[in-house]
Amino acid sequence: VKNSGVPDPRKIENYIDFKEKYKEFIQLEPEMSIYLGKVYKEMGGEMQKSL
């Protein structure tokens, strides 16, 4: 892993691998967006489809 200059809080002796974090985010994002939308609606929020 290239030294990003940012320590990894999970493994302090390593640096954050931003390419790997991006891949992890892309995999998790669809489910998280659905979940957060559901929570928002349960709290009384209204959602619209974007153009």
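The above is record 1. Record 2 follows with the same two-line structure.
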Amino acid sequence: MNGDSETGPCTQAANVTHPILWSYVGTITQIAYNNSVYGALTPTSLGPSDRGYCYFCGMSSAVTTMSQSIDLFPYVTDIVSGNVSFNLSAWLGGWTNQDDSAQVSVDFLNYAYQIVGNRTTIGPVLATDRGFTTSL
């Protein structure tokens, strides 16, 4: 559900364009890769070749978090029978020499909002992981 920052508008200026389908704490925006005002990442910056048009940016908040809940009840029969699996992947990055500590996690919850199984996490990505460059 907008995991790639491609749903909804992406800012082409200095304004904040909050991502849709996400809850968030801190200032988060969807920025177009060709945004000449921010200029952090461009379509040719290091990162995925199939990157799309936009990326999520935590701006200048000390801590920014995003979350979303997806109801998997329509798939309960397949889940219980073990016929499905999941694949968590993400392109994580940060700004120059800052340890932005980007990471993504997934928890599966039951209807009482209790975690079922183990949390899966990718990251954090630190400045040394990116070679002290702004990249994904």
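The first strand starts at residue 23 and ends at 25.
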